[in-house]
Design brief:
mainly beta, three-stranded antiparallel beta sheet, about 0% helix
Length: about 70
Amino acid sequence: MLYCSNPSCFNPFNSDSHKFCISCGMQTLTPLFRNRFRVIRFLGEGGFSRTYEARDTDKMDEPCVIK
């Protein structure tokens, strides 16, 4: 997954095939969320947030969840 660098984007996660953000149209997509986490896949969503499976690149790709 790629991450939109626009701080006001309401859904910053995009699939690897996108060339621009599907939510806000920004053309700057990066492979790491907050320059640290590599998002693997969407897990689910509830009333207040979405959750994603990720790997922490600062901790040797240790599995984690981003909420």
